Predict the 3D structure of the following.
Amino acid sequence: MRWIDRGPEPPGVDGYARQFTPGWVDHFRHGRGGRPTDSFWREFRSTLGVRTADICWYCERQCEPASEAGGKAATVDHFKPRSRFPELTYQWTNWVFSCRRCNEEHKQDKWPALGYVDPCAGDELERPEQFFDYDTETGEIVAHPTLTGDARQKAWATIADLGLNKLDVVFYRLDWTRQFLDDLGMFPAGERRAFVEFWFEQPQEFRGAIAMTVARLEASGEL
Ligand SMILES: [Zn+2]
């Protein structure tokens, strides 16, 4: 996971919010009425996805069109789940572009006391870069070693509940990292910085993991 600028709220969200939020609040907060069937936030799914060329903001894998069946289909995740925060159903800042696996198989309606690390956090101190590190030997995302107490707990809860270290994602993340390091190693030392900049100009899966890999190389003086 890395920080994503969600971008400005597109026109129309506020109208949907006024029209449909009361139905969600009635259903989940007051137990009145059936589950609303409106799904207008899907209109905005592509507006969110275009920020990362349709790469999931949680696991950083490429999503497939929403019409496709399967775990990599694109969805709009409600960061704070609708069942617990129905008043945020149509709040733009509560929407996260996510693959179906991260959203519906892992995160679901969970919301621990400390919440989760927000990929779009406005406050720099709350952004993913503050919470996570990357073990380039195992391919696993880990809590940042400087964290203690609640922040550490929040990092690990996010990793566990969102399935950031699910087996196949770890496999591809590690494979991607090795490929990046192999490619980097083909360049003479004086050209490696330019290669890194070129790499980050493209839409890429596992961008956050590679950014953490680069940070390690910088810290050890290898880049
Ligand atoms: Zn995902």
Observations:
- Strands lie at 74-78, 95-99, 132-135, 140-143.
- Helices lie at 13-29, 45-49, 100-107, 128-131, 149-161, 167-185, 192-201, 207-219.
- The longest helix spans residues 167-185.
